[in-house]
From TrEMBL:
<dbReference type="Pfam" id="PF03466">
    <property type="entry name" value="LysR_substrate"/>
</dbReference>
<keyword id="KW-0804">Transcription</keyword>
<keyword id="KW-0238">DNA-binding</keyword>
<feature type="domain" description="HTH lysR-type">
    <location>
        <begin position="7"/>
        <end position="63"/>
    </location>
</feature>
<protein>
    <submittedName>
        <fullName>LysR family transcriptional regulator</fullName>
    </submittedName>
</protein>
<comment type="similarity">
    <text>Belongs to the LysR transcriptional regulatory family.</text>
</comment>
<dbReference type="Pfam" id="PF00126">
    <property type="entry name" value="HTH_1"/>
</dbReference>
<dbReference type="GO" id="GO:0003700">
    <property type="term" value="F:DNA-binding transcription factor activity"/>
</dbReference>
<dbReference type="InterPro" id="IPR036390">
    <property type="entry name" value="WH_DNA-bd_sf"/>
</dbReference>
<dbReference type="InterPro" id="IPR005119">
    <property type="entry name" value="LysR_subst-bd"/>
</dbReference>
<dbReference type="InterPro" id="IPR036388">
    <property type="entry name" value="WH-like_DNA-bd_sf"/>
</dbReference>
<dbReference type="GO" id="GO:0000976">
    <property type="term" value="F:transcription cis-regulatory region binding"/>
</dbReference>
<dbReference type="InterPro" id="IPR000847">
    <property type="entry name" value="LysR_HTH_N"/>
</dbReference>
<keyword id="KW-0805">Transcription regulation</keyword>
């Protein structure tokens, strides 16, 4: 493998000379002698065999070749800085990555708001969000595949959960669907004659089928967007979260059906930490930010942030 002709320090010096408008200003900012900066840049140009800077009057200006190389060098020094920061974080036990399991009916807006606050504090931690359905979320928890889980209904036996919110599921179809013209409330026998759209359970080994599944014909889909597209074409009926279809209801693209004995369902959602023993500081911070989104855990979050700011 060939040896590099230049060093990161040389590129950092070049960046400082350009950013501060000259050798004297850069020397003051870096607390180095001006002659050492002149020598470093001159040596860099000699090693590369290309002129990077040219002096006009008392100010150094980038050459066209220098502009291209300087731009590339900034990516390089930034990556090295992030790498060094990550090494320091790993030494302190800060997790390099987190995985969050999200029950599909949980409003993504809540999670996005928590992640927006997490981003400036995350120290480069990568986040993966896994959407899951019904017992699929339980499976993620039981098999320790996620660091944080947002679970629908009752959590798996033996796991503690912090309640977050309740989601209302409503029965929907297109205004052009035959069910929309029938008098309310609908009889479940009438409903069973039509196509039902259901969202697939993401568990690899689902113990049983959940939900109203009496329809003679059923299409199974992987997400709500697919179900909405089919509903709007006048095909089938489906239970969907109210917060996802408010716009379609307001615009008249979908109508709400009243079913005798079950016109709506409320599903509680809660936060579960599958393994508290292995939970690190990044996971604790994100957990508290999610809880704060629902009016819980604010004091803990502020304490965590204050501690980080003090350490910095």
């Amino acid at each position: 493998m060939s040896r590099a002709k230049s060093t990161l320090e040389q590129w950092r010096i070049l960046q400082a000379v350009v950013d501060h408008g000259g050798y004297a200003q850069a020397a003051e900012a870096l607390n180095k002698s001006q002659s050492s900066l002149n020598h470093a840049v001159a040596k860099l140009q000699h090693q590369l065999g290309i002129e990077l800077l040219e002096v006009r009057g008392r100010k150094a200006h980038l050459t066209p070749q220098g502009e291209v190389l300087l731009r590339r060098s900034r990516h390089l020094t930034q990556m090295v800085g992030e790498l060094e920061q990550l090494a320091g974080n790993l030494e302190q036990g800060w997790e390099p990555s987190l995985t969050v399991g999200r029950e599909l009916i949980y409003p993504m807006e809540h999670l996005v708001c928590a992640l927006a606050r997490f981003l400036p504090l995350c120290r480069g931690t990568r986040v993966t969000v896994l959407d899951s359905v019904i017992t699929g979320t339980h499976e993620l928890i039981l098999e320790n595949k996620v660091d944080i889980a947002i679970c629908g209904g009752q959590p798996p036996k033996g796991y503690l959960a912090e309640p977050l919110c309740e989601i209302e599921l409503i029965l929907l179809c297109s205004p052009q669907h035959p069910l929309a013209s029938l008098p309310a409330p609908l009889d479940d026998k009438e409903l069973a004659r039509h196509l039902q759209l259901v969202i697939k359970d993401t568990a690899l080994k689902s113990p049983k089928e959940l939900g109203w599944l009496k329809a003679e014909q059923r299409w199974t889909l992987s997400n709500f967007h697919e179900a909405l597209a089919i509903l709007k074409r006048g095909m089938g009926f489906c239970w969907l979260p109210l917060h996802l279809v408010e716009q379609e209801l307001e615009m008249g693209e979908l109508v709400r059906l009243q079913l005798q004995g079950s016109s709506a369902r409320r599903v509680p959602l809660s936060l579960v930490i599958p393994n508290r023993d292995r939970q690190g500081p990044a996971a604790r911070l994100l957990e508290q930010l999610i809880l704060e989104r629902h009016g819980k855990g604010q004091e803990t979050v502020e304490t965590e942030q204050t501690r980080d700011e003090t350490n910095d």
